Structures are given as structure tokens and as C-alpha cells.
What we know:
The chain has strands at residues 3-7, 10-13, 18-25, 33-39, 46-52, 55-58, 66-71, 76-81, 90-97, 105-107, 111-116. It is an all-beta fold. The strands form two sheets. Strands 2, 4, 5, 6, 9, 10 and 11 form a seven-stranded mixed beta sheet that branches. It is globular, with a radius of gyration of 14 Å.
Amino acid sequence: QVQLVESGGGLVQAGGSLRLSCKATGSAFSFIAMGWHRQAPGKQRELVAATSGGVTNYADSVKGRFTISKDNAQNTVYLQMNSLKPEDTAIYYCNAKGPFGPSDNYWGQGTQVTVSS
């Protein structure tokens, strides 16, 4: 059974940095894409950053501040978040997509990121 375990969230002042990690276990196949989404109170979940086949994409709101990277050997994806803003406050969820269609899609439990002004 696939599990995604996130870590690295917390409370930080505006302008600070955090690094999120997400380790995937239980899959016999490589994921075709991994990424991070976030959901702020009262808002819909949104894509923050994703990586697939060496190609990365970012939400416009985080470009130049966040960097996604992946360690294929460890099946771990990271999100380095710099110059954090209060509007980055949200629960951040790791996502992994397998090669077998829409049902082969997994989410972590979420990690809280809070940025104080």
C-alpha cells in the first residue's frame, strides 16, 4: 500500500524559510509525477509545484521563491520555500501519481505551514 509521509512544516516569520519533505513507500513502480498542493482555510486546494520527468512547474504565486526537487533513489520529494509570506499559510499536501491512471493517485496527510507577519 502506497504511503506518503510529509514532514517539515511549522511556524515561521515572514521572510523566513522552510523545507518540506515527502517520502513515498509501498510502490513497486516509479511515480510519473510528484508534487505539492496546499489548502488555506476557506479556499480550494491548489497546485503549488510539481515535477514529472525532470520538468517542473510552479504556481505563479510561488515562482522564484519555492523550489521542488526529487531524490529518485529515496522516492522523496522536497519543497524548499524561501521568502515566505503570510499568504503562504496553509496545509501542504504531497501528491504522487502512478502509471496506472486516475485511481493510481495518492495524497499525504498534510503538514501545516504558518507564516506570521
